[in-house]
Design a protein that fits this description.
Layout (H helix, E strand, L loop, with lengths): L5 H13 L10 E7 L8 E3 L4 E6 L6 E6 L10 E6 L6 E7 L4 E6 L4 E6 L4 E7 L7 E4 L4 E6 L3 E6 L4 E7 L10 E4 L4 E6 L3 E6 L4 E7 L4 E7 L4 E6 L4 E6 L4 E7 L5 E5 L4 E6 L3 E6 L10 E6 L6 E5 L4 E5 L2 E6 L4 H14 L4 H18 L7 H20 L5 H18 L3
Antiparallel strand pairs: 1-28, 2-3, 3-4, 4-5, 6-7, 7-8, 8-9, 10-11, 11-12, 12-13, 14-15, 15-16, 16-17, 18-19, 19-20, 20-21, 22-23, 23-24, 24-25, 26-27, 27-28
Helix pairs in contact: 1-2, 1-3, 2-3, 2-5, 3-4, 4-5
C-alpha cells in the first residue's frame, strides 16, 4: 500500500485550512485624508514619537504642522500644534533626526536651511547657503545633514556644530542633484538625477564612488539598510528600480506604473509604492521570499500627491497632497501563516527540517480555525515554537542567517497582529 509522505500530508493540511482564508496576506487600506490649514506638499516622520511633520503655507502663513501618527490615539492624524517659521519662508523638504530631536527644512526661494527644535516645537536657527536646497536628509548615526542643489551639488553639514563640512560636485556634465536617501549601516548616500542617474557618495570621504545610469524621470528614492537594497521610483519607465548596494548594480525593474513615491520599511521588509491616480502598491523586499521583487498587493484609489514616507514603527504610509493621505497595511494572520509555510517550502530544506517547521505552522493555522472560534493563544505558542526551531537550525548551519532573520521576523509580525504577549 502506498503511504503518502509526511511532508506532503502537512503541506496538504496547510493548503486545506488556507482555503478558508483565501485572499491576500496584506491588503492596504485608506484610513483617512488629513487636511492642513494651508497647502503643503512634503512630509517627514519621527518613528520614536509617532509624530508627522508637514511644512505648509508661505510667507506669513508658513509653518510646520505637527500631526499625531499614533493609530491608538484619539487624535490620530489630527494636527496637534504648529512650528512657526520666519515670515518670508517658502518651506519645502523636511528631514528629522529622532536621536537629537532636530528637524531640517529647505526653502524653495531662499538659500537657507532652517533648524527646528522638535522637542519644543520651535524654529531655533537659520543657516545661510550658497544656493537654495532641493532635498534634505539626515544620517542619524553620524549626525550629518545632506542637502542637494539643482546645479549638481551636495553640501554636508555637521549636525553637532551646524557648520559646513564638505561640498560634493556630481562628476558628470549637466548634473542635477535631486532626491536623497541615506544608508546608515554602510554610510552611503544616494542622490538621484531626474535624467537617469543615481550617484553613490561615501559618507566617510565625502566623495562620489559610483554612478548608476538607468531610466528617466527618477522621482523618489528609499533605502533598506538591513538588506542593502535601494528603491528608486522610475516614473518614465513605469517601474521601481531595485539597486543592489553591495555592487551598485540594478537588480530588478518591477512594473508598477508611473510611480512618484517609494518608501521601504526595513522592519517588515516591504516597500510602499505610490502611483498618482492609481493608488498604493506593496513590493516584497525580503531577500529569501519566493515573491521577492514582486508586487504583493495593490490599493486602487484616486490618490494624488507629491511626496511620501512610511512610519517604520506603525507601518503607516503617508502621501502628501495639500494635506496627506493615510494608508496602512494590516496583516491577516491565517493568510500570513499560509504564506510563511509556502516560503519555507520554497527554501528546499532537508525533509526533516521542513517537516518540523511545517508542522508548527500547520498547528498554528489549525488553532486559528478551531471550533473555539480561533485559539490565538495556542497559535502564538506554535509560532514561538517555529521561531525557536528556526534559530536552532541556524545554529546548526542548516539555515542562512538571512533566511533565519527573515523567517523569524515574519513570524514576529504575525504574532504582533494576533496580539501575542
Amino acid at each position: 500500500m502506498y503511504l503518502m509522505p509526511r511532508r506532503l500530508l502537512i503541506t496538504l493540511a496547510i493548503a486545506g485550512i488556507a482555503l478558508c482564508y483565501a485572499g491576500q496576506t496584506h491588503a492596504q487600506r485608506l484610513l483617512a485624508f488629513s487636511s492642513l490649514e494651508f497647502s503643503g506638499s512634503t512630509v517627514a516622520i519621527d518613528p520614536s514619537t509617532n509624530l508627522v511633520y508637514a511644512p505648509m503655507g508661505i510667507g506669513f502663513d508658513a509653518s510646520v504642522a505637527v500631526n499625531d501618527g499614533d493609530p491608538a490615539s484619539p487624535t490620530f492624524f489630527f494636527t496637534l500644534r504648529k512650528i512657526d517659521l520666519p515670515n518670508d519662508t517658502f518651506p519645502w523638504r523636511i528631514a528629522v533626526n529622532p536621536g537629537t530631536r532636530r528637524g531640517y527644512l529647505t526653502d524653495t526661494q531662499w538659500p537657507r536651511l532652517y533648524v527646528l527644535d522638535l522637542a519644543n516645537s520651535t524654529h531655533i536657527d537659520t543657516i545661510p547657503l550658497n544656493q537654495a536646497g532641493w532635498d534634505v536628509a539626515v544620517n542619524t548615526a553620524t549626525n550629518r545633514i545632506y542637502l542637494t542643489h539643482t546645479g549638481g551639488r551636495v553640501t554636508v553639514f555637521n549636525g553637532n556644530t551646524m557648520t559646513g563640512e564638505a561640498t560634493i560636485d556630481l562628476p558628470y556634465e549637466n548634473a542635477i542633484a535631486g532626491r536623497l536617501a541615506v544608508n546608515e549601516a554602510t554610510n552611503r548616500i544616494y542622490v538621484t538625477d531626474p535624467f537617469g542617474v543615481v550617484s553613490v557618495i561615501d559618507g566617510t570621504s565625502n566623495t562620489v564612488v559610483a554612478t548608476i545610469r538607468f531610466g528617466f524621470s527618477l522621482e523618489a528614492i528609499s533605502v533598506n539598510p538591513i538588506t542593502n537594497r535601494i528603491y528608486v521610483a522610475n516614473s518614465f519607465d513605469r517601474t521601481v528600480t531595485v539597486i543592489k548596494g553591495e555592487t551598485n548594480t540594478v537588480e530588478a525593474n518591477v512594473f508598477v506604473g508611473s510611480c512618484r513615491g517609494v518608501a521601504v520599511n526595513p522592519r517588515t521588509g516591504r516597500a510602499f509604492v505610490f502611483t498618482p491616480g492609481d493608488g498604493v502598491a506593496m513590493l516584497d523586499g525580503r531577500l529569501t521570499s519566493p515573491t521577492y521583487n514582486t508586487l504583493l498587493s495593490r490599493l486602487d484609489a484616486p490618490i494624488f500627491g507629491f511626496d511620501s514616507a512610511v512610519n517604520v514603527t506603525t507601518n503607516i504610509f503617508y502621501v502628501s497632497s495639500q494635506g496627506f493621505y493615510v494608508v496602512d497595511d494590516p496583516i491577516s494572520p491565517p493568510s500570513a501563516i499560509t504564506a510563511l509555510a509556502q516560503w519555507v517550502s520554497s527554501l528546499n530544506l532537508a525533509q526533516g527540517m521542513q517537516n518540523s517547521l511545517d508542522s508548527k505552522l500547520s498547528n498554528a493555522l489549525a488553532a486559528l480555525d478551531s471550533v473555539k472560534g480561533g485559539d490565538a493563544s495556542t497559535a502564538c505558542n506554535k509560532l514561538d515554537s517555529f521561531i525557536n526551531a528556526v534559530h536552532a537550525q541556524q545554529d546548526k548551519g542548516q539555515l542562512s542567517s538571512t533566511a533565519a532573520r527573515e523567517l523569524t521576523n515574519e513570524a514576529e509580525l504575525i504574532k504582533s497582529a494576533l496580539g501575542c504577549q
